Each structure stands twice: as structure tokens, then as C-alpha cells.
Amino acid sequence: MSPSNERDYVLGTHDEEITRLGVQHRAWRPVVLGCWKAAGVTSGSGVLDVGAGPGYATVDLAEIVGHRGCVVAVERSTNFVNAIRRTVKERSFSNVEVRELDLMNDDLPAGPFDFTWCRWVLCFVSNPELLVKKLGNALRKGGRAIFHEYGQYTTWLFIPQRVCLEKFRSHVIATWHESGGQPDTGLQLPSWLIRNGFSVRSVVPRIFCLQPDDYMWQWPSAFIRVHLLRLQELRVIEAGFADQVRSELAAAEKERPSFMLTPLVLEIVAEKM
Predict the structure, then answer these.
(1) Cα-only R_g, the chain
(2) Which domains does the chain have, with CATH numbers?
(3) Count of beta carbons in the 10 Å neighbourhood of residue 106
């Protein structure tokens, strides 16, 4: 993987991003574990972890499926792949395979798998319906594809209103589009699934109204702090605006009453027909 490809990931693949993804995973972990259980992931399952990042979900899946099951983690970023492999070695997992590949240009592992798991992956690729087709090819008949994808990113709001934080959100969306992604892919995902041989079993909205003391508040607040640096690196914003955003976030975390609505996420489970 060349350095230029590492930079192509709009959020970055640096160490700060790996740490942030850990905060994000811990915030979402109770929701995700419930989702996997409801979908049927269990001991002995074969799971394809698609766009695995640094492997936080990979580890949880490996523990759930146990020695009778297997998890194959696929990821484009060399930095993330190395992070997964370090964890697999440290934890002595014998049921995890890690493959470095490009979801758009390379074939997925053949499987057939019982489950595929994608969290905020379709929204970053250039042709999400092509990836849906590839997932169908990797699953056995009756296998299930599980997704968490944004349905409406602009539901991310602060109460009372924080003008600079809303402008920050707009910059995030703009750079997302410029990189070839689409933040609200969850709205189109059911149609793509049906066209590619799936039956949609469930669509569950996940949106939270948080206060600063809620642990999940750390998910978006960590994103703001890390992504401000990324936007400056990309020369999208100036240091002065970044300071204004940090000031508004500090006020939101200190003042009372203070609330945050999170971006709408759609939890979608579909079965291969």
C-alpha cells in the first residue's frame, strides 16, 4: 500500500485515528453486541469483517465465534492491517485471518461465510452497490449481511445551537463527498440489497440524545478533536476556526443544560436468498 493510498482515506490512518476508533468502538460496543446476537452470530460462525479498520470489532467477533468459528478481516490500510496483526499475535488468536485488499478493486475472500459485518464502510467507497454485490457472492445461501451505515448525518446537532460546530459538520460532509464517498448511504442500502439477491430482515434507527456525562458523548467529541487536525492537514480549515470549534465544544461540555443529537445510523440486517 503506497503512502498516497493511505492519505486517500479521508479520516486518516494515523495513530491518533486508531486511538479515536477505539473510543468509538467502546461507545458503540453494547449496541453492536446486541445487533450481532439478534442477527444470529454465535459460536462456530464464519464471519467476514469488511473494512475492519484496526480490528476492534474483529477481536470481539473472534471471541464470540470461538475456536470452532473463524473471522476473516479485510482492510485496505497497511497501518490498520499491521494494527490488527499485532493484536492477533498478542492475543494468540488462532481463528482470525487478516487480508490487505482494496474493496473496490480486489475480490473478497470466497467463503462462503455465515455473516458479513460492515460498519461505516459503504459510505467511504466509490461504488457501494458493487460492494453489496461482492458481499452476496461471499455469503452462503441463508447467510446474513449486517450493516451500520449513516442514514442522515445532518441530525448531528447541539442543543442549544452551536454555530461553529454545525459549520464543522458541513466541512466534514463536503470533504466526504470530495473523497468519493457519500455519508447517507443507509437510505439507499435496502434497495441495493434487494437488487442483489437479498431479503431485508430489519432496519433499525440508532440515534441518541446525549448529555456530556454520557459515555457515548466521547464518540463524537473524540471525532471532533481528531478530525479538526485532519481538516487543517487537508487545508480545509484555518487554525482560528479550529479554535472556535474547540471553544464551542468545551462550552457544550461545561454548560447546563446541554444536549447533543447524534447522526442517524441505520442498523440493517439482510439475508441472502
Answers:
(1) 18
(2) 3-272 (3.40.50.150)
(3) 13
